[in-house]
Amino acid sequence: MKxxxxxxxxxxxxVDQQDSNHERADQINERLLEAGYFFATxxxxxxxxxxxxxxxxxxxxxxxxxxIFTRLIKGGLLKVLRVTEALKKKPGGLSxxxxxxxxxxxxxxxxxx
Length: 113
Fold this sequence. Notes:
By secondary structure, the protein is of the alpha/beta class. It has five helices and five strands, in the order E-H-H-E-H-H-E-H-E-E. The chain has helices at about 10-15, 20-35, 45-55, 60-75, 85-90, and strands at about 1-5, 35-40, 80, 100-105, 105-110.
């Protein structure tokens, strides 16, 4: 299974249609889905994305993002990695399971199985 870590700027660009990266993010999102990627993110990224959207596009859009995010998790299309103090202090932390992969205009982190 191909898994890819999605950072907050990508979530924000996908939701905010006025974001300068929105169209590109939408296209890359489609390509990743077509290529069979499974998305992952972290609880920290979720919080940062939600806060950013709240201030950029307003409460209603941030709430819509939360609802979509929840449906993706329940549908098995998204895994949320819990960043904890223990994980942050562990030698290597998340970095032992992550490699960088470059897509046109994106740098994404791919999780190793």
